[in-house]
Amino acid sequence: xxxxxxxxxxxxxxxxxxxxxxxxxxxxxxxxxxxxxxxxxxxxxxxxxxxxxxxxxxxxxxxxxxxxxxxxxxxxxxxxxxxxxxxxxxxxxxxxxxxxxxxxxxxxxxxxxxxxxxxxxxxxxxxxxxxxxxxxxxxxxxxxxxxxxxxxxxxxxxxxxxxxxxxxxxxxxxxxxxxxxxxxxxxxxxxxxxxxxxxxxxxxxxxxxxxxxxxxxxxxxxxxxxxxxxxxxxxxxxxxxxxxxxxxxxxxxxxxxxxxxxxxxxxxxxxxxxxxxxxxxxxxxxxxxxxxxxxxxxxxxxxxxxxxxxxxxxxxxxxxxxxxxxxxxxxxxxxxxxxxxxxxxxxxxxxxxxxxxxxxxxxxxxxxxxxxxxxxxxxxxxxxxxxxxxxxxxxxxxxxxxxxxxxxxxxxxxxxxxxxxxxxxxxxxxxxxxxxxxxxxxxxxxxxxxxxxxxxxxxxxxxxxxxxxxxxxxxxxxxxxxxxxxxxxxxxxxxxxxxxxxxxxxxxxxxxxxxxxxxxxxxxxxxxxxxxxxxxxxxxxxxxxxxxxxxxxxxxxxxxxxxxxxxxxxxxxxxxxxxxxxxxxxxxxxxxxxxxxxxxxxxxxxxxxxxxxxxxxxxxxxxxxxxxxxxxxxxxxxxxxx
Length: 642
Ligand code: MIC
Ligand code: SF4
Fold this sequence. Notes:
Blueprint: H1 5-13, E1 14-16, E2 24-28, E3 31-34, H2 36-48, E4 58-62, H3 72-88, E5 91-93, H4 100-107, E6 114-117, E7 131-134, H5 137-146, E8 148-152, E9 155-162, H6 171-182, E10 190-195, H7 197-200, H8 204-212, E11 221-223, H9 228-236, E12 256-261, E13 268-270, E14 278-280, H10 281-284, E15 291-295, H11 302-312, E16 322-326, H12 330-339, H13 341-348, E17 351-352, E18 372-375, E19 391-394, H14 397-406, E20 434-435, E21 464-471, H15 478-481, H16 495-498, H17 510-517, E22 520-524, H18 536-543, E23 546-551, H19 556-565, E24 568-572, H20 576-579, E25 586-589, H21 592-598, E26 600-605, E27 610-615, H22 620-628, H23 631-636
Parallel strand pairs: 3-4, 3-6, 4-5, 6-7, 9-10, 9-12, 10-11, 15-16, 15-18, 16-17, 18-19, 21-22, 22-23, 23-24
Antiparallel strand pairs: 1-2, 2-8, 5-20, 13-14, 21-25, 24-27, 25-26, 26-27
Helix pairs in contact: 2-3, 2-5, 6-8, 11-13, 11-14, 18-19, 19-22
This protein binds alpha-methylisocitric acid and iron/sulfur cluster (SF4).
Iron/sulfur cluster binds near residues 297 and 378.
């Protein structure tokens, strides 16, 4: 009794540990998903673990990110993933099928299951009542090989949605409103569990928009109850048999409750360059725009696009504006082709891309210099769109569509009566892009010439001594540490080549600094490593000799990626010590292994002669992994991940 929904699901899948906040637990993994930009590492790591079979109920390998094929590299990665999928009996989703999170919700989402995905927006599955957690690739590989996932028991925060939405207020506006209140650090080490009358009203795709952007709050995951809306969605997907009702007990105890009054939410936007830089459209004013991009795993649903089509129908996109549409899945694209919505968008002047991530990860459609781009996506970090001096505003599909017509940021309420799109009687479910594998262990793995071995850490030395290579500010993203765009995504399987671009949004010579010093330490501010789950943001620094990151605080996935790679993540006890450090200072940690085990690590600055205290917030198992030089060395020593 008195249990939250999250606690109920965790208890039902618990393999190890106690559900005390902050303690390490292990849960059974029912499902995994990978996408291609992180997936190559996952399957290289699975191979390196010598796993013969996988232990999940279902695992799916999607190709949705690296879809531009300007050279052989991306296509080689696709072939590699497809061959690994055949070997292990993993379902393969061909390029063109759509975005992993959208497709997974449609075809595999199952209330009460635990899903681990090598993408930070895996919590999209929380919209259907799954405990869906984004993680680094190695954790997904372990999830497949051993059927378990380790995490620190998060706090459970109840987000209670009260009241009623005003017309034209979409799910995107609700989550932007929450981001404005709680900030990009607001959900760190927490599961956000939605409840209240306002939650019951939301459809599964709307809920998924909200849980998707829980990633931007830094949350471990976000989840909605499984209720009549969930059943309704599953029925329309032809999968009612996986439904089970799931909810918190009425008197459930939470670590914190945040009440959001939906009546207060108005159409809004996240302004450049952070998803929490939120203001109402009114406050921002009718700024002139150059590009509008609609789609992504946040707003790639059927009703999102149908609303856009209804707004565009019979009208014309503003002459200055380039409107780009990237559907969330092939099923949605097919339905829109059949019902005429696609024709409405095309005749209004929309540019159509294949179903996939596309411009969201900078794979094409970079806006012009100094452009203002409105996007229905989830991240607007500087440079992510491919144009360093562009300003990206995150908005709802309704705001995006009406603004594309007027050429300026426009409140959709100006259109008069709200548009209501009923969910389709039944969703399309085309088989064309799926390869449903059964395991074929003798399948040869296809390794294109761009696929290079990944770096592996080395045992922790007794005395760690290295200079500060770089000192960053707060909220450094993984897009800063290891940028991704159309030029760099093809290098995701080639860590040496990627290393030329490490930290390139902050400094141009990080690789040279690292090579000169041979090994080094990075100093960060608050929320270091927020954003993507890409373990390249740990593996590339590892390749360049980074041995430790000392920061005011870390984003969850990045911290565990550092541990998996064998890089020490240490947190300043006193944030003022951050101020006393300069690039080039030589730092020393004596008896590094022992100090890690105690969780308290003294760092001596041999340049200034001052020392300061840091904390290692990882678990006992994390400390053991770091001593061994990362997760793979730890596993090779015979230590079980389970
Ligand atoms: C993103 O949105 O940043 C990505 C690209 O989907 C990443 C994964 C990656 O870097 O490959 C994510 O969110 O985890
Ligand atoms: Fe793809 Fe963008 Fe979603 Fe990442 S955030 S999975 S790049 S659509």
